[in-house]
Amino acid sequence: MATFGTAAFAAWAPCRSLGWTTVSFVSHRGLSALLARNPMLAPSWLPACRQKSTVSFLSRPDLPKLAYKKLKGKSPGIIFIPGYLSNMNGTKALEIEEFCKSLGHAFIRFDYSGVGNSDGILEEGTVGKWRKDVLSIIDSLADGPQILVGSSLGGWLMFHAAIARPEKVAALIGIATAADSLVTQFNQLSVEVKKEIEMKGEWVIPTKYTEEGTYHIQYSFIKEAEHHCLLHSPIPVNCPIRLLHGMKDDIVPWHTSLQVADRVISTDVDIVLRKDSDHRMKEKADIQLIVYTIDDLIDKLTTST
Ligand SMILES: *[C@@H]1O[C@H](CO)[C@@H](O)[C@H](O)[C@H]1NC(C)=O
């Protein structure tokens, strides 16, 4: 059994990183245009320190309870779907929440089962279980049309959600979308290496994103994930889709976003490749791109009906 270092869950410490991660959210509307011209007026609605508040829980029959935070507001709502091993308190989740708050739109973030404050056992997590988590959040907590913002693994899962809930999922934003990614990477290994992983039951991948310097992926996780692959045939999703990807991504190659765009049946698909961004896309300019993209899709959804 793989054990995951606690570093992977390093809780977001309130106030600590605000100095450099906070972005002045400049939407195209009213007051914010003024702020854009006068950056010194910088966003006064951003609290000096984010409010510490507790999470809520979604109980489900026969499934682990999910921790979430929900902000009430206008439609469409926005749901942030985190990446592998990430919890609801990552930089992108919090920055997007602040942005939605400033616009007055509904927003939800949550922890997958086995992650953060949700119940469940991390080592038992599968793409299929986390897919169900996303559907539970959409079904039980989200009212009306939603824009899903999926990061990495969350980008893969958001396509599953759009396929399963076309009436509710109105638009998608993928950040370093990891569609099929672990399966694709596994299949690229040599026959010998694959055999060895199958025998050991575990695939150890070097990474700079955990303290111990490795991800431990169960062989069974890969096998289960194969059932959820999307890129082998047309993806039946027909809403506006925006795919953002860093060209310095060393976890999920940016070509994955091109493949997704190619396979999806929607024709309203834009891809933005950022030459200098890495997998996490959490630098100031990345966050700004993400929130502009949300703002733009809100405009599109609210003016096209
Ligand atoms: C996320 O932040 C909330 C406070 O907003 C806290 O209650 C919760 O424990 C944090 N979750 C994790 C996994 O650190």
TrEMBL record:
Location of the protein in the cell: Mitochondrion
Gene Ontology molecular function: any one: hydrolase activity, hydrolyzing O-glycosyl compounds
Catalytic activity: S-hexadecanoyl-L-cysteinyl-[protein] + H2O = L-cysteinyl-[protein] + hexadecanoate + H(+); mycophenolic acid O-acyl-beta-D-glucuronide + H2O = mycophenolate + D-glucuronate + H(+)
Keyword match Transit peptide: yes
Protein keywords: Hydrolase, Mitochondrion, Signal, Transit peptide
Recorded GO CC terms: mitochondrion
Database matches in InterPro entries: AB_hydrolase_1 (IPR000073), AB_hydrolase_fold (IPR029058), ABHD10_acyl-thioesterase (IPR052382)
EC number: 3.1.1.93, 3.1.2.22
Top EC class of this enzyme: hydrolase
Record domain AB hydrolase-1: where: 78-177
Signal peptide bounds: 1-17
Family: Belongs to the AB hydrolase superfamily.
Role of this protein: Acts as an acyl-protein thioesterase that hydrolyzes fatty acids from acylated residues in proteins. Regulates the mitochondrial S-depalmitoylation of the nucleophilic active site residue of peroxiredoxin-5/PRDX5, a key antioxidant protein, therefore modulating mitochondrial antioxidant ability. Also catalyzes the deglucuronidation of mycophenolic acid acyl-glucuronide, an active metabolite of the immunosuppressant drug mycophenolate.
Protein name in UniProt: Palmitoyl-protein thioesterase ABHD10, mitochondrial
Organism the protein comes from: Chrysochloris asiatica
Lineage, highest ranks first: Eukaryota, Metazoa, Chordata, Craniata, Vertebrata
